[in-house]
Amino acid sequence: MPKLARIWLVVPLLAVAYVCGALAQARWVNVDATRHDQDSYLAYAASVDDSHFAAVGNRLQMPALPSLLALFHHAGEPQSAFFERAKLVCIGLSVPCALAVIVLLRRTLRKAEATVLTLLVVFFVFSFRAAYVQAELLSYACLFAGFVAMANLWRRPGVAGAVVVGLLLAAAFVVKGTALVGFYVFAATFTLRQLVLLARTRAPRHAWALLAPPAAFGVFFAVAYPYLQTSKLIFGGYFHNMSSAYVMWCDSWEQYTALESQLHLNLEGWKLPASQVPSAANYLGSHRLVDIAQREIRGLAEVAGNALVSHGYAPVVLLYGGFAATVFIQHPRLRARALRCGADSLAWFVVPYLAAHALLFGFYGAIAAGNRFSLAMLLPAMTSLLRTMGTPSMAEYRLRVGSRHFSWNQLNQLAIIVIAIELALYFPYAVATHYSGG
Question: Are 122 and 98 in contact (CB under 8 A)?
């Protein structure tokens, strides 16, 4: 069969499988709107519709998804009816999100690696999570687009790149407030890189490039200003967020929910004494460094454990991660090369970017350690790994097992086989039975 004919046959079949999987989750698995913030998004969307888009929100859920869902809300209807419709809207929204990710992967990776990661993410992340009334899938797409834009700006500093980063940051921020974490890491590492290059070369272009992060932030602030201004007027800070201000500084979600009734959602503040209000200052003042370290370690272990019992993506991630780690251990020249990477290396941004998010997820693990948070880093992490290992200069580094050697291209072929087996034997059953909202 000609190659084009195979594509026209396989792609529609995969698209049907994707949609059927998402609908199966909606019909048989995701039947309780009270689980994992879904009822909060529904209530927020209903308030947006009832107020003719004037509702402020509680600064725990961000406004992008509720504003979209409000377009499909019918005044006075029971939440159960809205829930069923909202699930279909989220499935529909997942399609352009998946398409955007596919386009970015095709532009960022070689064909083989892009195919592997596309199948992995679309079927074992997006299809499982599309039917949930949550902002996660939209957030994954926006964060990944922002990550790619920041990587491009790192390689080629310029005005256009800074504008793109600012626009994508604004889009990601109104979906999930945690989008700012990645930009803060980028701004710090990019500025440090430029200062090092400026000290070495004295070239004016390195001085001008220092303006890129402030320019990107300026574009972000201008676009998001209506939301930020409301936060400032009502809650006292442009970037006020319930999770970062209060929730994450509790020792558990149960502790926060027990205190939640004492909270006013505006500048009136808490009914509790200041010393009892969850905050960074109170947490750091009442916990020892060993307590914080233990919380981080326990959280990271729980996050990693949840990832290992995932919905099919973990075997392929472990396959690639294990290959890269083993090759790194087996080849001293590769280790030396990694240690010699200069200031221009993208690793100086990517490694801190991933590490900062890992530490955040680990600390937040005491509140919630579900995969829906840590999966935000799957695309940036895997894209960085596959792009690095798939370069021609890495072809000489092969995995040694006894007297045999295995190449990166052979690993790609093995990954496709594993994914094909999972799609045939695991996916149809799991997507119709495994809860995926946590």
Answer: yes
**C-alpha radius of gyration, the chain, whole number:** 23
- The count of other CB atoms within 10 Å of the CB of residue 354 is 17
> What distance in Å separates the CA atoms of residue 191 and residue 209, rounded to the nearest whole number?
9
Give Dmax over CA atoms of the chain in angstroms: 74
Q: Where is average pLDDT lowest: 60-64, 96-100, 251-255, 378-382?
A: 251-255
Q: Is the pLDDT of residue 309 over 90?
A: no
Q: What one-character-per-residue DSSP string does 374-400 give? A: HGGGHHHHHHHHHHHHTSGGGTT--EE
**Of 212, 219, 209, 211, nearest in space to 167 by CA:** 219
| pLDDT beyond 90 at 246 | no
pLDDT in tens, 36-73: 889 999 999 999 999 989 888 888 899 999 999 999 99
Contact yes or no for 175/41 (Cβ under 8 A): no
* Main-chain dihedrals φ then ψ at residue 40, nearest 5 degrees: -65, -40
SS3 406: strand
Closest CA to 137 of 107, 176, 167: 176
What are the pLDDT digits (tens) for 67-94? 999 999 999 899 999 999 999 999 999 9
What's the token pair of residue 76?
């006075």
Rounded-to-integer distance, Cα 200 and Cα 266, Å: 50
Supply the pLDDT for residue 265.
Answer: 47
DSSP 202-233: --HHHHHHTTHHHHHHHHHHHHHHHHHHHHHH
Query: Token pair for residue 25?
Result: 């989750």
Model confidence, pTM: 0.94
What type of residue is 51? S
Contact of 277 with 263, CB cutoff 8 Å? no
Integer angstrom CA distances of residue 169 from 113, 144, 351, 355? 26, 10, 20, 19
Q: Could you tell me which of 133, 64, 138 has the C-alpha nearest to residue 97?
A: 138
- Res 204 pLDDT > 60: yes
Q: Is 203 exposed, middle or buried (0-12, 13-18, 19+ CB in 10 A)?
A: exposed
- Domain chopping of the chain, boundaries: 136-237, 241-286
